[in-house]
Amino acid sequence: MEDLLRYGYFDDEQREYVIDRPDTPLPWINYLGTDAYFGIVSNTAGGYSFYRDAKLRRLTRYRYNNAPLDVGGRYVYVRDDATGDYWSPSWQPTPERELDGYECRHGLSYTKIGSARNGIRAETLYFAPLGETLEVWRVRVTNERTESAEVSLFSAIEFCLWDAQDDSTNFQRNYSIGQVEVVDEVIYHKTEYRERRDHFAYFACSEPLAGFDTQRESFLGAYRGWDRPAVVEAGAAKDSIAHGWQPVGSHHVRLALEPGETREVIFVLGYAENPKDDKFDPPGSQTVNKTRVRPVIERWLRSETVEKGYADLRAYWDGLLGGLSVTTPDGDTDRMVNIWNAYQCLVTFNMSRSASGYESGIGRGMGFRDSNQDLLGFVHILPERARERILDIAATQKADGGAYHQYQPLTKRGNNDIGDGFNDDPLWLILGVAAYLKETGDLAFLDEPVPFDNEPGSEAPLYEHLRRSLRYTLDRLGPHGLPLIGRADWNDCLNLNCFSDTPGEPFQTTENASGGVAESVFIAGLFVLAAKELAGIAALRGQDGEEVVYRAAAEKMAGTVTEHGWDGAWFRRAYDFYGNVIGSGENDEGQIFIEPQGMCVLGGVGLEDGLAARALDSVAERLATPHGIVLQQPAYSGYRIELGEISSYPPGYKENAGIFCHTNPWIMIAETMVGNGDRAFDYYRRLNPSAREAISEVHRCEPYIYAQMIAGKDAPTHGEAKNSWLTGTAAWNFVAITQWILGIRPDFGGLRIDPVLPGGWPGFEAVRSFRGATYEISVRGTGRVTHLLVDGERVEGNLIPPAAPGAVVRVEAIATA
Ligand code: BGC
Ligand code: IFM
Questions:
Q1: Which bound ligand lies closest to the C-alpha atom of 647?
Q2: CA–CA dist 394, 69 (Å, integer)
Q3: Is there a contact between 405 and 460 (Cβ–Cβ < 8 Å)?
Q4: How far apart are CA 516 and CA 423, in angstroms?
Q5: What count of Cα atoms within 13 Å lies in the side-chain half-sphere of residue 251?
Q6: Which residues form the Glycosyl hydrolase 94 supersandwich domain (predicted)?
Q7: Mean pLDDT value across residues 143-156
Q8: How high is the pLDDT of residue 281?
Q9: pLDDT, tens digit, 9 for 90 and up, residues 547-581
Q10: How confident is the model at residue 506 (pLDDT cuts 50, 70, 90)?
């Protein structure tokens, strides 16, 4: 391969990705915050912050899809007061200024960006401390010259007027409502305080101020951008107070630095709410209540607090990631499993699909389907949060077993705008609950009362919700006995009932989407898998009668798949509204789709009669590329209303034959189920971001986390990734590598060690916490595990007998060649 550019390297010791040139192909971002206060931050300090809800509690402003990309951020300017030269150590927003030794270190929930110019070095550490609703910027400025230096430091953020949607559209109102207050050198942003009277932001600095600014036009100067702020150019703040227009926050600090001296300046940006019955600030007062926040601000402006807050954050991540670590012959695997994939799973859990470089924070709620899958990737780390999340999701389920496609994070109510009719949705709840039970053994969870559609009085045990999920599919079978697809299944864009939610667009059917008779082989595969999981759960509860019923239902559906869903060399995809087959050799385009090959095999369909292996060979022959496995072939060359949105994408992008990374791990898992470790691991490495670091110029997205999509072989930009960070890809890749290739797999009865490794590996080592005990595992050999030595005692098979909580157990898994 030709020598391609890299933009950085992994520092595994520190668990950081180090970017050493700022002009990455796209903004390479990271996340701040772990609980309620969050932010995104790019390698050039772009990004924004919010409290809980990226739409309704947006603290700072950001401009998506701008030129240049990634405008709006947490900016610091340094000014050499002797010469007037000024720059930003994060490169943006002053990219014309040359920097020495630029470096951005993205770590776990923190980012450090630094560089030097003309002998003045500045580095900023950004993080949001645990348990607080604020973020800290710790700036260290060092004079590396041989003479003393006089420098000015300016901070700069632009406030968003809280509701990010309104902020970017409703200018007739918003140009008049911006309000700030500056008291004791703290900038308070209180737009909306007047009306709602309960929340405000503050921005404070540890040093005495030479001045401040809160009106954008004063700070930047008329018709100027962030690259040339008039105040910074002049070296003097204007003490402006915003009345409407665009409130900003900027502090001006002057520093006199001896040769070699380092000074630390701390900025704190935070969010606060007043209690409704505020005694200090009676209704009608227009002054922000500082009584509660002042002590918080003072605490976090102290160097010791910041040092400890940062140490605590690092310790928090040590604790979280300590639950599973592996040492394999492949460094890219270790790095992803031990650090970055686990991190991405937690970030995705926190953010769902709300805020990233591609999700604007205003659009999407929590997905019923997505959230159930996300938890597969972090349930071993934070089982209690998975539990909470499952209860929230299940409470939005409807009494007929159906699901709202999304719910709102603040209200936790099903979202009526998007509604229901994605007929795969309910089945994912069974998979989510099964994963939680396998991890924790917490059977009592199934008896937890959970309402339907959040209706008080409708509570039923969680187990009943699972029954109804399965029933939902059985109540909706189509002409071939396959599940009706409704508006769409996992593939949102395969709209076979020709549903259109765009007013004025033609409907081909007279019914609505859910009324059509299109059927999904994918849902059939998912049903078989879910029915077997529920049978396992029923067995655990001693409900043997139900177990038999669910196993029979799984078997019957598997038979239907074999009869109507098999195309001769692979599983078909669907039948459309007219009964025409989709994903078949009979079609001119879209002959073979990845999803049913993965999901039918995951359900166990075709494992015994060889169909599974045949289908996987077809995937290898027709869909696999060096950059991953494409979603279908041949790509649709034009729009087809009877297929819907899938055909609206140009060939090779997104669902139209893009490498939709979420689906690839299903094939990896399927390959392990037919015993093909070489192929499974080969597919794994094709997507592994760390393994793709060497082709960063082609891949373009961050090399430390997965992207949703890589352009497929029909695309002019084959290999280019998009939509990084918030994707089911994170959880499923984690499951594929840890549970199926490395084979450390929680099961209802305990922890299973069932690796299916690539040939040539001598084995690997792992440490895994499970139900309170710690297992130190050595796998020897690359064949299937036949027996274990558990603390030296021979155990037949591959299931570790559960140990007492607190125990440290040594396990050797012996594989035959
Ligand atoms: C898909 C989009 C689609 C949207 C609609 C997304 O998950 O990737 O292409 O438009 O869902 O549901
Ligand atoms: O399955 C969906 C997911 O729910 C959201 N992103 C796209 C996927 C495929 O359409």
A1: 1
A2: 39
A3: no
A4: 12
A5: 27
A6: 15-276
A7: 98
A8: 59
A9: 999 999 999 999 999 999 999 999 999 999 889 99
A10: very low
Nearest CA to ligand 1 atom 12: 492
Element (H, E) at 378: none
Cα–Cα distance for residue pair 477/520, rounded to 1 Å: 10
Instruction: Report how far residue 612's alpha carbon sits from residue 675's, in angstroms, rounded to the nearest whole number.
Output: 11
**pLDDT one-digit tens code per residue, 307-333:** 999 999 999 999 999 999 999 999 999
The Cα 756–Cα 58 span in angstroms is 46
3 state SS of 103: strand
Instruction: Give the distance (Å) from ligand 2 centre to CA of residue 708.
Output: 9
C-alpha–C-alpha distance, residues 586 and 598, integer Å: 21
What spatial distance separates the first Cα and last Cα of the chain, rounded to whole Å? 34
How far apart (Å, rounded) are the C-alpha atoms in residues 632 and 573?
A: 10
Q: Which ligand is closest to the CA of 728, given by its number?
A: 2
The angle formed by the CA atoms of residues 579, 584 and 590, to the nearest 5 degrees, is 100
Please tell me the distance from the alpha carbon of residue 686 to that of residue 332, in angstroms, as a whole number.
11
Contact 122, 140 (CB under 8 A): yes
Q: Which residue, by CA, sits nearest to atom 10 of ligand 1?
A: 493
Category of 16 on φ-ψ map: left (φ > 0), alpha (ψ -120 to 50) or beta? beta
In contact, 660 and 515? CB cutoff 8 Å: no
Rg over alpha carbons for the chain, rounded to the nearest Å, is 28
Q: What is the C-alpha to C-alpha distance for residues 94 and 451, in angstroms, rounded to an integer?
A: 54
Sign of the CA dihedral with 807 first, then 810, 816, and 817 last: positive
Distance between CA 375 and CA 433 in Å, rounded?
9
Q: How many residues does the chain have?
A: 817
Question: Does residue 398 contact residue 452 with C-beta atoms inside 8 Å?
Answer: yes
> Are residues 388 and 382 in contact, defined by beta-carbon separation less than 8 angstroms?
no
Helix (H) or strand (E) holding 47: none
The tokens for 412 are 């936790």
What residue ranges in 49-99 does DSSP mark as E strands? 49-51, 58-60, 75-80, 86-87
Beta-strand relationship, 808-815 and 773-780: parallel
**Do 102 and 7 form a contact (C-beta atoms < 8 A)?**
no
Query: Which residues does residue 189 pair with via DSSP β-bridges, in sequence order?
Result: 180, 201
Q: Amino acid identity of 745?
A: R
Q: Shortest CA distance to 623 belongs to which of 587, 586, 663, 588?
A: 663
Structure tokens at 199: 């929340």
Q: Which of 469, 457, 399, 406 is nearest to 432 (CA)?
A: 469
Q: Two tokens at 39?
A: 């932010």
Rounded to an integer, the average pLDDT of 718-744 is 98
DSSP 384: H
Give tens-digit pLDDT for 602-638: 999 999 999 999 999 999 999 999 999 999 999 999 9
Predicted local distance difference test score (pLDDT) of residue 625? 98
The answer, as to whether pTM is greater than 0.90, is: yes
Residues 6+ apart with CB under 8 A from 596: 521, 522, 524, 525, 565, 570, 571, 572, 573, 583
CA distance 759 to 13: 29
35 an active-site residue? no
The answer to whether the CB of 491 is under 6 A from ligand 2 is yes
- 282 pLDDT tier (thresholds 50, 70, 90): low
Annotated active-site residue in 492, 678, 682, 747: 492
The verdict on the CB of residue 380 being under 6 Å from ligand 1 is no
